[in-house]
Amino acid sequence: MTRRNAVILSLFVAALALQLGILLAFQFSRQSALDQGRRLVVRAEPVDPRDLFRGDYVILRYGFSRIDRGQVKDALGETDLRGAKVYVKIKQAAPDAGWTAVDVRRRPFERLAPDEAMLAGNITDHSPETLNVAYGCEDVFVPEGQGKPIEKNLREHKVTVELSVTRRGVAQPAKLFIDGQPVEFK
Amino acid sequence: MPSQSPKPVPKTGLADIVADWLWVKLREWVEQGIIRPDQKQAIEDLYIWPPRLIKQTPAKPVNLILALEIIGALLIGIGLMTFIAFNWPHLPSPVKLGLVLFLIAAIHLTAYGLVYHSRYHLAGQAVAFLGNLTYGGGIWLVAQIYHLPASFPKGMLIWAAGVLPMALVFKSKLSFFLSVGLFLAWTLALSMGYQLPQPVFLAVLLGLLVPGAYYLRSRIGLAVCLAVGGLWLYLNLFLWADLRVSAFLLVPLALYGLVLLVVSNVHAGKARLQSYAPVYRLVGAVILAALIVSQPFYGIWSVQHARMELAALPWAFWLWCGLLLAGGIILVFIPRWKADDPSSRLTRAWLPYLAAASLYWLALPLIKISVLPSLLGMSAAVLGHWLATRSRSLIQAAIVISLAWLGSLNLEWELTWWFMALLILCGAALYLYGWDLRRPPAKELGLVFQLLGLCLSLGPLFLLTFHSINQKILVAILPLPVHPDYWILAGLLGAAWLAGCRLIFAYAHPKAPHGLLAEERVLAVLLGLSPFAVTAARYAGPPDNWFTFALNAAFFFVSVMFLITGYRRREPHLKALGFGLISLLVAFRFFEMDWSLLYKSILLVFSGIIIMATGILFEKNKEKVAVLD
């Protein structure tokens, strides 16, 4: 093998390793977030039944997606907050009650009570009264053709989602429940 | 100090076996991007070649083979992604992921073997492209398994970051385009999603993508990067201006076009960079032409809604204006960077007029009395061209555009079809004048007019291929326009088209390089007749499925014609146009169908395998296929 061929081969192996490495690291980071994260069961609400089903995923909206700034501790000020990363402290009033936002900050919360959790998100829109926050766990992908029944259930039944939340506040959907029963895709 | 011209080197003869080998190798090295065409020519000029080689220069079937293999790879790649999107619940997620990882490694290893250890270099490039698509499929699979948001710009970024090194290792221009497209999709998704400027993309563009295009010796890649730079500039200015539309925001974009023209002169003055000069000239000319030609139309429709006080403009606007102006002026006045070829001289003579025409965007929003002065910018550019060349071709083209502009003044938007008919006729006339303009020294300018004309003609025709759109536009009873000026204008545009036909039909390809091939004559006639044909068909009966089918078939026919003329003329932009139109048509029709993703993916993969196998078979019998190219 000539020196040129050896250089090309090693560059090729490096590029291939980079692709496979990126993919495995990506998968590993998401899997570990799912395995090690704290599980919260949160109530999902339909945003608008007509716009709920897009292709082969269902869009969910949570009780803490839209935050009433008058109801929470909010030290964000009035500057342009679009796209800003924020940390939202959510609290469960009772074991079966829903989770609601109680505090919003630009830095992570250091201490949390047992009935509290922290979610990291980005502000998508805001006004002096409200904040809309996307947490990256709003879309649930389903097999082809199985989105419509879920869409129907969202309107007629109680739909909850089990979120897995890491210590840094990254949330991802783990399970979907309709009236407490986990959804099995066929 | 004038440079001394090199002494002519006496030509030497070569042994037949060496001559045969070097003759073939020189062409292969150009194809592989190892040497440039001018370097090949310089080497050829050193030797005396056997007459049989010169007489029997074979037409290389490379383009046709590569086209087949690329289409095949693309179909297979899209098919795999469609299968992933099908989200089959009976296949566990870890198995799916393992399968994708195995496929990525296997496909890339096959590509490596084909490119570096076989004679199937072209198939290797197409397989490497397929590997990069499969890698993207893997990213979306993981994103699907873990329910990452549907709007996931980071996915584009990590896809692009994995594709770029592989493109450079394989010296694959195709994968490079994929990488550029993905980086662009990433920054657009972030800009659109959160409406935040993305300055980091400029670093990616200047630090990775533009040098990558030079490394791959890809002129099309460089053109794409320069166009993407313009898009980035406008989009970010829009965001810096807090989403307020303003004609002023087009000023930095016009300056960018001027700077590209100046940089083309810098490239033309350097022997090693000469082959890139037309790229800068073409992209700069397209940007400027689009802006200057759109000024009058902008004057009609948008002036009322796009007023922004100069004082309210963001600091980024002034910064970019300053940077681009300073850069352009410095480059113009450094004597050693001045090139002396005819097109560079034309560019230099024309620059002040183009600058005046493009900076006229600053005055346009302030004009409140009449729309007529909005034609001044275009007039300055036309005057500059006439003074520099004494050619009347741009004056003629400006008259054609002004006719369309005048017609728009009295147009009622309810009469959509009648407006579209005007645009198609205007585009057909511009397309023909573009051929006339392609005579040296303003070859690229002719190309700009041809592309502009095709956009004006094919845009409305493409919209009509949508069943839902042609139903909406044509299904209602067509009222005839009542304004006499509409009919005068339609008559004038029709006359311009006929005059253009008469003007250009006198030139025949290949005797005159700007002459038309037989297919192009048919195309020019078809474009001009299409408004009459559609109107006649509409009056014969309401549009139904067959009407849509016929329009789709006609559009496909026109697209294939561009592809054929691209190959016959060996002009990459025509091939790209043909491929682009076919891809658009197939993609839109495909997504219109209410099909299962599973069936769709199977069809795509099998079609891709058949087309790719045909390409590989052709590559095996390269010389026999030459006649097809």
Assembly type:
heterodimer
Q: pLDDT average of chain B, as an integer? A: 79
SSE arrangement of chain A, N to C: HEEEEEEEEEEEHEEE
Largest interface: A-B, 43 and 39 residues
* Percentage of residues in strands of chain B: under 5%
| DSSP strand count of chain B | 2
Strand order of the largest sheet of chain A: 5-10-9-7-8-6
Choose one word for the global shape of chain A.
globular
Straight-line distance between termini of chain A:
53 Å
Query: Count the helices of chain A. How many?
Result: 2
**Per the principal axes of the C-alpha atoms, what is the gross shape of chain B?**
globular
Give the low-pLDDT segments of chain B: 1-5
Task: Tell me how many strands of chain A there are.
Answer: 14
State the major sheet of chain A. 6 strands, mixed
Low-pLDDT runs of 5+ residues of chain A are: 47-55
Number of helical stretches of at least 4 residues of chain B = 25
Structural class of chain B: mainly alpha
Task: Measure the end-to-end span of chain B.
Answer: 48 Å
The strands making up the biggest β-sheet of chain B line up spatially as 1-2
Q: Sheet bearing the most strands of chain B, described?
A: 2 strands, parallel
Summarize it.
The complex is a heterodimer of chains A (186) and B (629). With 186 residues, chain A is an alpha+beta fold.
Q: What this model shows, in words?
A:
The complex is a heterodimer of chains A (186) and B (629). Chain A has 186 residues and is an alpha+beta fold. Chain A contains 2 helices and 14 strands. In chain A, the strands form 3 sheets. Chain A has a 6-stranded mixed beta sheet, with no helix packed on it. In chain A, strand 7 and strand 8 form a beta hairpin. In chain B, strands 1-2 form a two-stranded parallel ribbon. Chain B has helices at residues 16-31, 37-44, 51-55, 62-86, 93-117, 121-145, 153-169, 173-194, 200-215, 219-240, 250-268, 277-301, 315-333, 342-359, 376-389, 393-409, 416-437, 443-464, 467-474, 484-505, 518-540, 545-569, 572-592, 597-620, 622-625; strands at 12-13, 47-48. Chain B contains 25 helices and 2 strands. Chain B is globular, with a radius of gyration of 26 Å. Classes of the chains: A alpha+beta (186), B mainly alpha (629).
